Amino acid sequence: MNDLLKPGVRRREVWAWAMFDFANSGYTTVVITAVFSAYFVAVVAGNAPWATFAWTLALSLSYALVMLTAPLIGAHADAHASKKKLLWFTTLGCVGFTALLYFAVPGALVLAIAVLVISNYFFGTGENLIAAFLPELARPRALGRVSGWGWSLGYVGGLVSLGVSLAYITHAQAAGQGASDFVPVAMLITAAIFMLASLPTLLMLRERATPQPDRPARSAWLQVRYTLGHLKQLPDLKRFLLCTVLYQAGIQAVITLAAIYASQVFHFTTQQTILLVLVVNITAALGAFIFGHVQDRIGHVRAIALTLAGWIVMILLAWAAPDERMFWVAANLAGLCMGASQSAGRAMVGLLAPPAQQAEFFGLWGLAVKLASILGPLTYGAASWMTAGDHRQALLITGSYFIAGLWVLRGVQAPRGHRAARRFALAEI
After folding, report:
1. Could you list the residue range(s) of the whole structural domain that residue 328 is in?
2. Nearest partner of 107 among 42, 62, 163, 53, judged by Cα
3. Considering the entire predicted model, what is its pTM?
4. Is pLDDT at 215 greater than 70 in this prediction?
């Protein structure tokens, strides 16, 4: 394994880095996908006609804030070698505001939206920061494998948080409690697991970057404008960022609206939805772990193309499924593709970004992902509205993002992009 890691990097530090994926996955699994999303619509907003739209708008606002600030935070982290300090801050922020969701009782709509927006902002910013450590740990030829270890461990973390929450919810229901009683406690459980599981990362991961006082003295805004203006020197990275916006729009729609699709089309209960998410997390973990190795063998572009083809097949299966049995097949295929495509995308950015500006370019990657997080769900919502609530047609329309992403990916050449990143870095010295 040591030949996969950069000099001075120990295995336990890679484990500590991957544990952050374990820690923060509980937030997306419990809060965004499986539990709080349905609770928000049915209980906090009282199943109002606009409830689902309010949910997607709140998430879109938080993603827009991340999108606007991610490159700036990345540029600051590079200039001051402060990724670790910022990671502490965003982790405590996400944990704290997730715990505050305990007070999202029926009718507390404004509070629920405000806390959701802030917690999700901290989550998204921390996700960008932890990704920027990857090129400091793994050699270029092993980026896919190491990224895959993190993503696969992350899905295990989602399973743990969801499993503990489900155990508590089952106990609470047996005691006669309702959703307004047990869902707030599930938010405290999720926050506690996030904090405890992130401690190895926060305590053991090293900040290897050094402050860059000799870099051109630009403000954060000017540095971002400069970087965007010079993306023409990194055509493969630029094209891949566009590709990321497109295919991530499809992925984010699936993540955000999977529970709604299952309940509206196949009439899944809450327990069935949680079981579905649990099983899909297992297949996603397998996909991330296995595909990390496959990616390093067959190449980053081919690996991502293969996962996008899988996403297209999944959309067609879910759209055409006559009953829930085929939908289960489609959902597990989505899990495999989700783990693989998320891991592969992070590794690709690590390969194409200039070495001395990893945090800044991972900030741009975060910008692309968060832009997709706005486009995908809103496209699904608009399509559902225009088709008079036809969720099958809404899914099919949203699936066109995967086709567009696959088309744009055709022009990306990873070796050429890696060489361009090295030239760009030398020009900045």
Report:
1. 2-208+215-428
2. 42
3. 0.77
4. no
